[in-house]
Amino acid sequence: MRTTNHLTTTLGLLALTSLSLIGCSGNQETADTAVAPPTYKLIPAKKVLFNSFVDCNMAEAWVGDTFRIFPGKYGEDPLWGNARDLKYADGKHAEEAFASKASDFTEPVMPKNVPVGTPGLHGAVWFETVYQDPTDKSGKTLYAVYHNENYPATLPYDSATGEGYIDKKWPQGLTGPTSPAAVCRIGIMKSTNGGKAWENKGIFIEDLQPRLIMKPHNTSKTFAGGVGDPSAVASGDYLYLFYGEYGYPGQYEEKAYDAQKEWSGQCISVARIRLSDLDNPVGKARRWDGKGFNAPHNGVGAPIAALQIPREAGGGAASSPTGGFYWGPSVSWNTYLNGWVMLMGKVTGSSWAGSSIHISFNPHKDLGEAMQSQAWSKPKLLLDKPGYFLWYPSLQPMNTPDDVANKHTCLRLGQRARLFVKNIRPEKSEYKSEHIIEFVK
């Protein structure tokens, strides 16, 4: 989650060149399986421009016969200012909701930020995924997985709990040398009235102060560390969280810092929590540690190896100004392919620079069986727009009989879907769709 004013200078150095589209050849084997990933084609389509603020994955759900979306940002932010942009809009289908005017959005009732040193909601939040309780036939019981950002000013270190951050050798943020970098973590909110009002349930996963990466090593102008930019899907009795891991895989110590070690613990990772624990999630989630979901919610896990960029292929640590990692996963179950699809961005420089979107597949429905949560194909280039920063790609349903009848969302889709992505360049930022993706068996 980043505000885009800081990109003007950086992007001004980039030359705008032609759009490049690349499809999957279908010859790359998935991890731990001999099955080749599906083929697909990206089809140019009439431009759909979203009319409200988006700086995250698009969270959405069908509430009865209403398709409801939840873009935007809410809460305190000493760097960018307090925000009241997290709102919802409705439609009879996805296309109608996405076409909503700015005036059509409604602000939900949100929990208030609490004072420093008080338990509760600190910092700003963005809804990334909405999980809908299937036992509530009205569709009104929703759980929002949110990305949360804090600073030493909003969440100072508490030695009694180990929570919070120490403002010492703090890395630079996005608005200049005196601005602080944020720390991200992931939490859960609940609504029982279809998203019109929300209650904070607490933190899903986080990295504590010892894992944050400080000066002089952290020069990326992104995060001081933490976990964020998630996408969550239900499989069996669990909610699986795919997220960006930006911390050090162990305790960061300035004199012992190792860039190779930092890279080894980043960047797209997976954790899970029982669906029955969503009402009381704090401390209940477990991260993948390389063998199973064994690491605690604030412990050291292991990234999905197939989604790491090898060092020899340009992969790098998240604290590096040269980047070299995938981030911002968006995961969906595809009923046509009978498998999972993941989109992601790629960071190639400081301040989240990167002009390409990539795609990966996992053919295993049960993400809890053996190594199946790790069985993703090597990412393939889906879309490249040199001269732009491309953030937050997702596949979205359309106004087709199949999409409407099956109440498809970004979490569950069919053979064809709209590709949405945030396009950023110096003069403007647009969240839009200019392509349809079609999968082919």
From TrEMBL:
Signal sequence bounds: 1-30
Keywords: Signal
Alphabetized PROSITE patterns for the sequence: PROKAR_LIPOPROTEIN
Top-rank taxon, per record: Bacteria
Protein name (database record): DUF4185 domain-containing protein
Originating organism: Spirosoma sordidisoli
